[in-house]
């Protein structure tokens, strides 16, 4: 069964990952995120207690 022979498939997989790591990944990492991180501290929301009509 030729699909069990790893010789050609391992080379194809290795070439694909090297291409991804060397060419595609640096191009993707140059994109700037739309939301820049901020230094503001998050404020907790203020809530009011619920008044139950039967108490």
From TrEMBL:
Q: What is its main location?
A: mitochondrion
Q: How does it sit in the membrane?
A: Single-pass membrane protein
Keyword Mitochondrion, does the record have it? yes
Q: Which InterPro entries match?
A: ATP8_metazoa (IPR001421), ATPase_protein_8 (IPR050635)
Superkingdom of origin = Eukaryota
The record lists the membrane-crossing segments as 6-24
User: Which Gene Ontology molecular-function terms are recorded?
Assistant: proton transmembrane transporter activity
**Any idea what this protein is called?**
ATP synthase complex subunit 8
Family that this chain belongs to: Belongs to the ATPase protein 8 family.
Subcellular locations according to the entry:
Mitochondrion membrane
Give the originating organism.
Struthidea cinerea
């Amino acid at each position: 069964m030729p699909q069990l022979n790893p010789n050609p498939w391992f080379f194809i997989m290795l070439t694909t990952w090297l291409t991804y790591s060397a060419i595609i990944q640096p191009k993707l990492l140059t994109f700037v995120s739309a939301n820049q991180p901020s230094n503001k501290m998050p404020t907790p929301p203020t809530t009011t207690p619920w008044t139950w009509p039967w108490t």
